[in-house]
Amino acid sequence: MKRGVLVVISGFSGAGKGTIMRELIEQYPYFLSVSATTRAPREGEVHGREYFFHTREEFQKMIEAGELIEWAEYVGNYYGTPKKAVEQQLAEGKNVLLEIEMQGGMLVKEQFPDALMIFVAPPSADELKKRLIGRATESPEEIESRLKRANEETIYMDKYEYIVVNDDLARAVEQVHSIIENKSCEPYYCEKFICSMKEELAQFLEGDVIS
Length: 211
Ligand code: ADP
Ligand code: 5GP
Known about the structure:
Elements: E1 6-10, H1 17-27, E2 31-32, E3 35-37, E4 51-53, H2 56-64, E5 68-74, E6 77-82, H3 83-91, E7 96-99, H4 102-111, E8 116-121, H5 125-135, H6 140-153, E9 162-165, H7 169-183, H8 191-206
Parallel strand pairs: 1-7, 1-8, 2-7, 3-4, 8-9
Antiparallel strand pairs: 3-6, 5-6
The structure holds adenosine-5'-diphosphate and guanosine-5'-monophosphate.
């Protein structure tokens, strides 16, 4: 009975977006879009689950074929959102999560003005550095590049509708979930429900009202 909400979730690398996404899809029936990327898989990452891993040539072909809603370069690699799955899931009324960086986020907002924009921030810069080091998936040089990128990305923070500070994980997950729930109560997302309510009430008045 509801229209699906397209949710853009961005934040500095290491803020905890991926962790929040995993919790959300475990607890609630969200559809998490799987992006395409040219970066190498991290240990344990599976093609089609965390990302669709592609060569630069394959990625270029996807761009040319118009298969991506948006794409961006991030610290030397390309990342993009496949269009088909997102459109399908929205058409089925599912809430769709896009965990993407900010240039891509801005492109999504241009194409989908109703997209809900959420920015996940760490409680402090020091904690961000600790999380990136603690995750141990990048080299010290790569961590430095990501922190430099975070410094540049601060200009996007006030372009988002909500800032969720990921201090306590469970609290951050609940905040993101309730922001989405609230959005989906807006009349635009309840259009079908409104129509059926109108029809049902009109039908009552056509017949014997109290029987
Ligand atoms: P992102 O997807 O934003 O790059 P991750 O989800 O990979 O970030 O999280 C980065 C690191 O921080 C991971 O090691 C993760 O376990 C840890 N982390 C995530 N959320 C929290 C939190 N609320 N408190 C402490 N550590 C966290
Ligand atoms: P990572 O290499 O840590 O998985 O991701 C690096 C950055 O790319 C993160 O900020 C992540 O949100 C972003 N990202 C992941 N998928 C996409 C995508 O499809 N499009 C864009 N624009 N960014 C993405």
